[in-house]
Amino acid sequence: MIIRILDEGQYDVPEASLAKLEALDAKLNTAIEAGDESGFASCLEELLSSVRQEGSPVDASTIVPSDLTLPHEGVTLEELKELLSSEPLEEAPEGV
Hints:
Number of domains: 1
Order of helices and strands: EEHHEEH
Shape: globular
Structural class: alpha+beta
Helix content: 40-55%
Oligomer: single chain
Strand order of the largest sheet: 3-2-1-4
Number of strands: 4
Radius of gyration: 15 Å
Number of helices: 3
Strand content: 5-15%
Largest sheet: 4 strands, mixed
């Protein structure tokens, strides 16, 4: 699975690590839903650290789609909510 950490790069994470990462993601989502800034920061730091430890960096010159994108280290809960609520890019009209 390819996981992108914004402002950092991509990591190729083996399937065997996904259960651990999913558990951390669940903790992160709980903190987000509760509006727990310190819990969010702690869970995000642990999740990003685990992706870096479990995964192998993808060469920056290699272009591969990401299966999952995580926010950059140090993002606040408010910044994340703003990022998640932003409107998706509109598709270009046909023929353009």
